[in-house]
């Protein structure tokens, strides 16, 4: 892919750091998803929020998407950024669904429905919720530090080419 396309969509010239990000995020989602599956099948001790079998499979899917992008990004192929984007979208959808579950459960408790009297929010804080918060916080910090680096060292790329 030409570098002109990369400049138009404002992606880094090399995909080394992006591939590392995709690898770390993919392994995180995969590890937590695998643990959630083990807890769901009863192969690991009980953990609060890790009892959802479908949630474990969904986390594994998000991990697979991120990990699929590692190889193209490490080869500086710009198509790898599509895997990161889709991974973020899937993680955001899972986060949004978990927020909806929390809202509906809290509404059931607020309205005094019989099945919701013993509900507490701790059981609804699942890995899809806190993994996405960690992902977005980390991404925000990386974006801030990247912009600071560009402002503090604006002509570094120009000096190297001369």
Note down, in words, how this protein is organized.
- This protein is mostly helical and 162 residues long.
- The protein has one domain.
- The protein is built from seven helices and no strands.
- The radius of gyration is 20 Å and the shape is elongated.
Short overview:
This protein has 162 residues and is mainly alpha-helical. Helix content is 71%, strand content 0%. It has one domain.
Can you lay out the helices and strands and say which pair or pack?
Elements: H1 3-8, H2 16-40, H3 53-68, H4 70-74, H5 80-110, H6 127-152, H7 156-161
Average pLDDT rating: 84
Distance between the ends = 24 Å
Number of β-strand runs: 0
Q: Strand percentage, roughly? A: under 5%
Q: What is the oligomer described by this structure?
A: single chain
Indicate the percent of residues in helices.
over 70%
SSE series: HHHHHHH
Q: Helical segment tally?
A: 7
The major beta sheet can be summarized as: none
Any descriptors?
elongated; 7 helices; mainly alpha; 162 residues
